[in-house]
């Protein structure tokens, strides 16, 4: 059917608003998976006491943007410390045979606000992985989401943006990470250093207009 005509939706109408979509047009395009920002579920992983969750089919050549949901994810840590019970991410450009973990492969910056009204920022220009959440424990699971950009683009850095509400830290934080090498990323790994993780993670591709 034709899209972008308001009124009778016919080519011979007197006033043509080509390019303007009605709510019906948008609804139909979303159902077809053809509208911008429509989501395609690429993979869903349920895991228990895992050393790390790998996604080696991320359809990097199809999507410029990926969306990842963490659902009730927690580490085997029984307390909110040390920092190694944070959920982290590493990227791969060889299909998951190896993951980038150099001392200065990644950098990040976060701002945070705590329930006691204190606030601040946490920057790091040289890190071995992306920090994608605060500290997750057996009694305080993490529910979060983040976006990944440019994974399939060999001429651009791969970026991540996220927002978290972290019970164990009594804070809300937002910020992002970057893998500081232009490369075609075709696999990702999510883990916690020194701890196992349990929960569910979903990976989506975000359609672009």
- Number of domain units: 2
> Within the largest sheet, what's the order of strands?
1-12-3-8-9-10-5-6
Tell me the CATH architecture of the largest domain. Answer: Sandwich
Q: What's the gyration radius in Å?
A: 20 Å
Q: Which series of helices and strands comes N to C?
A: HEEEEEEEEEEEE
β-strand percent reads: over 45%
Q: Could you describe the largest sheet, including whether it forms a barrel?
A: 8 strands, antiparallel
Instruction: Quote the average pLDDT.
Output: 85
Distance between the termini: 18 Å
Fraction of residues in H or I helices: under 10%
Number of strands: 12
Question: Mind explaining what this structure looks like?
Answer:
- The chain has one helix at residues 23-32; strands at 39-50, 53-55, 65-75, 86-92, 106-114, 119-127, 130-135, 142-149, 158-166, 171-179, 187-191, 197-206.
- It is 5% helix and 47% strand.
- It contains 1 helix and 12 strands, in the order H-E-E-E-E-E-E-E-E-E-E-E-E.
- It is globular.
- It is mostly beta strands and 209 residues long.
- The longest helix has 10 residues, at 23-32.
- The strands form 2 sheets. Strands 1-12-3-8-9-10-5-6 form an 8-stranded antiparallel β-sheet, with no helix packed on it. The chain has a 4-stranded antiparallel β-sheet with strand order 2-11-4-7, with no helix packed on it.
- The model has no long low-confidence stretch (mean pLDDT 85).
- It folds into 2 domains: 1-35, no CATH class; 37-206, Jelly Rolls, CATH 2.60.120.
């Amino acid at each position: 059917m034709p899209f972008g005509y308001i009124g009778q939706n016919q080519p011979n109408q007197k006033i043509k608003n080509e390019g303007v979509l009605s709510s019906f047009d948008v609804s139909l395009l979303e159902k077809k998976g053809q509208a911008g920002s429509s989501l395609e579920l690429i993979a869903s992983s349920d895991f228990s006491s895992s050393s790390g969750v790998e996604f080696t089919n991320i359809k990097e050549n199809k999507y410029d943007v990926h969306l990842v949901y963490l659902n009730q994810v927690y580490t085997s840590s029984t307390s909110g410390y040390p920092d190694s019970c944070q959920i982290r991410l590493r990227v791969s450009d060889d299909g998951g045979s190896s993951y980038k973990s150099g001392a200065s492969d990644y950098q990040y910056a976060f701002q945070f606000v705590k329930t006691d009204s204190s606030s601040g920022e946490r920057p790091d220009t040289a890190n071995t992985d992306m920090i994608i959440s605060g500290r997750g424990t057996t009694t305080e699971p993490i529910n979060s989401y983040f976006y990944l950009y440019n994974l399939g683009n060999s001429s651009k850095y791969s970026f991540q943006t996220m927002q978290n509400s972290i019970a164990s830290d009594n804070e809300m934080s937002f910020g992002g990470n970057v893998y500081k090498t232009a490369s075609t990323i075709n696999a990702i790994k999510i883990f916690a250093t020194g701890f196992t993780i349990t929960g569910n993670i979903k990976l989506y591709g975000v359609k672009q207009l």
